[in-house]
Amino acid sequence: MSNHHSIDQSIMDYKKGSSHLHEALPEVAGAYFNFTEACFEEGALDKKQKQLTALGISITKQDEYCILYHAKGAAEAGATEAEIMETVAISAALGGGAAFAQGVTLALDAYNHYQGPAAH
């Protein structure tokens, strides 16, 4: 998935679906969104560490939308490519070949898309 439009479109599709759920079930979705937002606030772990952790879990679980979302979050929180690669390696160690494949393709493509001064 090296097509940058596909990465952006996938993030937009996720946000659109989330908004639709929020319209249909505002209390349920609102509670979930508040919970997840609170989980990613800086605490004992900084925002970058939390995004890298979430990325690693997403890769291991092979959750493509979360891989994209947390690769973006890690890039925006200042993660380096070396940190992304270590996260991929840890995920592959725990999740096997499928996690390795998701990490070296989808996660790395999304990180590269959202990092640096050329980021969208």
Automatic annotation (TrEMBL):
It comes from the Bacteria. Gene3D superfamilies: AhpD-like. Residues 26-107 form the Carboxymuconolactone decarboxylase-like domain. InterPro entries: AhpD-like, AhpD_core, CMD-like. Pfam families: CMD. NCBIfam families: ahpD_dom. PANTHER family: ALKYL HYDROPEROXIDE REDUCTASE AHPD, BLR3452 PROTEIN. This is Carboxymuconolactone decarboxylase family protein. It comes from Aciduricibacillus chroicocephali.
